[in-house]
Amino acid sequence: MSMDFQQLAADIKQWGKELGFQKVGITDLDVSAEQAALKRWLELGMHGEMDYLARHAELRADPALLHPGSVRAISVRMNYLPAEAGFARTLKNPRLGYISRYALGRDYHKLLRNRLKQLGQRIQQACAELDYRPFVDSAPIMERPLAVKAGLGWTGKHTLVLDEQGGSWFFLGELLVNLPLPTDQPVQEKCGSCTACITICPTQAIIEPYVLDARRCISYLTIELKGAIPEQFRPLLGNRIYGCDDCQLVCPWNRYAKLTDEGDFAPRKDLHAPELLTLWQWDEAQFLRQTEGSPIRRIGFERWSRNLAVALGNATAAEDIIAALEQRLPSASALVAEHIEWALARQRSGVAQVEKQVLRLVRAVERGLPRDA
């Protein structure tokens, strides 16, 4: 008896929703249209220290090489925006630390991978011939182009995937499968003439529509960059200590974003609008305890301290901040000490955080986010 792949595809989408994915799409594995742009981006060095993006070019060009026999990608997305995310409250208080909202809860990799594995098992029950492999940021796979081809959204000018009914506050994952399932159609791009994400970026990292210079991006500077943060960017980081959400916060389509109901993505109390000085008092052992199971742990204590030093330097000048920076300086590594010295110079000169963009961003946030976000 032959398999009804049309019905199987419909079943897969229903099973995916039952497993907590807000949308499921299916596409072939041809990502050749993206290769020229990626090659140019890498040649211009816009990936910075992210050398892994330049490796395994042949795998990125042909996802089937990652799992021989695959002919389709089942692309999924899962919302992560928590209720009471506290964007405005955190961003407009320079004594608090802002953490990208995707990192407030547990690391998403394991959760999505486990759900994708469950989806694969359900498909296998219906079709014993299935051979599959799940991916969640775990291999050189072009997940955004695959998601766009699968109809999960379009590529916004900030390079993230956008959906008119779900904004961009979601994670992506894929199942590569060997079944010739019917494919979905891409959706129409609807950014139009809007340039809000380009305009608001504190470091002007979106150098033109759909082109991000990672070397200028706050997420790259606070997470991926291993060495010193270039001085010209330090004042622009404000109180952002891990990642940045500004381009998403001002996007008009995110007023339609849906809040997550996944408990693992709920903000941890000690990371939700935390006092910078409280975080500054952590030693490495406490950092490791507080970030267990969190994506934040991957940057390590030294880079965490580096980021905090910059944020403290950007805070309104205060004696308690100067005292805390001075106390830590003698025991700091060379990398952290450099940033402490910079922060002390700003604090001692009375340079307060005066970032008009933050006020503009806060107003945009308060106007445009979903209720309870």
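Above is the first protein from milestone M3; the second protein from the same milestone is given next.
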Amino acid sequence: MKHLADLLLLGDPRLYETCEPVLESELPLVPDWVSDLHNVMEEIRAKYRFGRGIAAPQLGIMKRLIYLNIDRPTVIINPELTSVSDEMGDLWDDCMSFPNLLVHVRRHRNLTLSFRNEYWQPQTWNVTDWGLSELIQHEYDHLNGVLCTMRAVDKLAFRWRPTPIS
């Protein structure tokens, strides 16, 4: 079982690598990977009071796998952004790999995502919810070795967020 101490932090070279697809033959490994992702997300939520999604490479699992848990757990395997809107939105993005740093970025307001679920069934989401759209783009970037620090709108697009007091 992986824990918060296993989370890769800003500067770790693995965070800048492109992940390999999950193979159908690796499907039996997915439940353990998802359990690790869930556990670390819960530890982040308890310590920093944020966290809606996490990508496998953040735990050194260099596979195209995303775990979301907003209103229910969702496993996204081998996602592909098949279209994105021209309309953009701005936000102060956060990341579990640098939990006290906020980065001002621009992301697409809407998108279409194709992927496989944990049962290897093909799925397609047309995402028009801004909060979900920006989250998917953030996690999808992780699979391609892109951090939100690399998408900063300018050199002043960084802000410190203090650790919440328990």
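Note on the second protein: The chain has a mean pLDDT of 96.
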